[in-house]
């Protein structure tokens, strides 16, 4: 584990914090072979939260809710980032990758021009909890070769602020600590914040980057507005704002996610996300005719 001591941290200073634009309650749904989940970032929010396309939250101690998993299915044109809070999932894909995703670990998969994968639980009881975020690829990267990385929990850089917030830096950088992943064009920031005390957390953010907060334990407050558990708050992009200040009580857990918008057309058909309808037809045809990575 990379645990940076407080004395080495570079302080983030926010003087003009963002406000909350909108609170979102996720939509209960099921996906895969019948896994129950909550879709927090839904298709109508894709433009507003560009470059993010989807956020699913799953969490249950009832095996009936997760046991069927996600059997073989394709993706093209974006990246999936799965963050496992609790539980064990086995990943296998058509590019030959295999990995066990578990407690506190992250799987980062670039579907690129096409991959077929399965995500199946490797437990028959107990809690399964986590998140899957879809990050769009810029048009020039949509047809790149598929790529995959498993990051075990101890591979995610962490630090604790002097105020007592434990920060896990999945992507981007915070307080001078570089995260496990970096992406050029969209510069995603993905932080998991654990409030070990009732306090505040400050993070500088470029005003043009789209950003949101998702509270998964306790409640939090941004600029005077309360965000209850299992709620997403979309943050305003006011010119002149320089970051976000999140206040929360002891025990609260919050995801902070931000990125630079691509401002490119989005064409989605299920697991394919491209720029035009023609590219979607091509994706469906390539999949049906077996042209995804090592397919068939
Ligand atoms: Mn998938």
Strand tally: 27
CATH-defined topology = Jelly Rolls
From the spread of the alpha carbons, the general shape counts as: globular
Q: What is the SS-derived class?
A: mainly beta
Give me a quick take on this structure.
The protein has 296 residues and is mainly beta.
Note down, in words, how this protein is organized.
This protein is mainly beta and 296 residues long. The protein has one helix spanning 277-288, and strands at residues 3-4, 20-25, 27-31, 35-41, 52-60, 70-75, 78-86, 88-93, 98-102, 106-110, 115-121, 128-136, 147-151, 158-160, 165-171, 173-174, 177-178, 189-195, 199-204, 210-217, 220-222, 225-227, 231-235, 243-248, 253-259, 267-269, 272-274. It has a single domain (3-288), classed as Jelly Rolls, CATH 2.60.120. It is 4% helix and 49% strand. The strands form six sheets. It has an eight-stranded mixed β-sheet, with no helix packed on it. The chain has a seven-stranded antiparallel β-sheet with strand order 3-4-5-12-7-10-13, with no helix packed on it. It is globular, with a radius of gyration of 19 Å. The chain starts with a strand and ends in an 8-residue tail after the last helix. The mean pLDDT is 95. The structure holds manganese (II) ion. Residues 70, 73, 75, 80, 117 line the site of manganese (II) ion. Manganese (II) ion is lined by residues 70, 73, 75, 80, 117.
